[in-house]
Design goal:
By secondary structure, the protein is α/β, with parallel strands linked by helices. Helix 4 runs parallel beside helix 6. It has one domain: Peptidoglycan recognition protein-like (Lysozyme-like), CATH 3.40.80. It contains 6 helices and 11 strands.
Length: 208
């Protein structure tokens, strides 16, 4: 674990782009970026948001973990319309997986939101649509390996249960009331599709 932690890459956000207040962490929330694999660019894009939007960690397609700020601190990353939205942000740790997420399929080609082609080998097709989409870019094995180690470390550090919560793939009352656990952005908002329930991701969460 120490070797893993030593390999985390610091990409600090400016001090005025997140909150250094320390709150008891109760939840970990997994997102995906809807972008390419450049984690540094993702973090750079948060540098001029007056709302102080961001997460503590971004994992690129090669499995390298980039840290924007300490997991003890916080920024807005949920964007719910609930009255406890700010509290949920304060008490949660956000993790982003670099991925284009939902794709479109036309004339035998898969496209991301930037209208760039995504290789078929990187695509997962769901029999039934997930959040109105059937095609998604896969999370890589290296990403999921790093995610597992990061989740183990954070759960142990902040005493967050590692128990798999099946309802995380839909709006979750547990997530919205701030219960302890690991969730995804879809647990909080109907208009989000991050993360999608890729079998390998589910297996990681069940194996913690």
């Amino acid at each position: 674990m120490n070797q893993f932690l030593n390999q985390i890459i610091d990409c600090p956000l400016p001090d005025d782009q997140y909150y250094k207040d320390v709150y008891n962490k109760r939840q970990i929330v997994i997102h995906h970026t809807v972008s390419n694999g450049n984690a540094k660019n993702v973090i750079s894009s948060w540098q001029k948001t007056k709302e102080k939007v961001g997460v503590a960690f971004v994992i690129d397609r090669e499995g390298k973990v980039h840290k924007a700020f300490s997991s003890a601190h916080w920024a807005h990353h949920l964007g719910t319309k609930e009255i406890n939205n700010t509290i949920l942000n304060k008490q949660s740790i956000g993790i982003e997986l670099c991925s284009w997420g939902a794709l479109t399929f036309k004339n035998g080609i898969y496209y991301n939101v930037a209208k760039e082609e995504i290789p078929k080998s990187e695509v997962i097709t769901y029999v039934y649509p997930f959040r109105e989409n059937r095609y998604f870019q896969k999370y890589t094995d290296k990403q999921l390996e790093s995610l597992k180690l990061l989740l183990q470390y954070l759960c142990e550090t902040y005493n967050i249960p590692k128990t798999y919560i099946p309802e995380m793939w839909e709006i979750s009352k547990s997530a919205l009331r701030g219960d302890k656990g690991i969730f995804t952005h879809v647990s909080y908002r109907k208009d989000k599709s991050d993360c999608h329930p890729q079998k390998e991701l589910v297996e990681v969460l069940k194996s913690l």
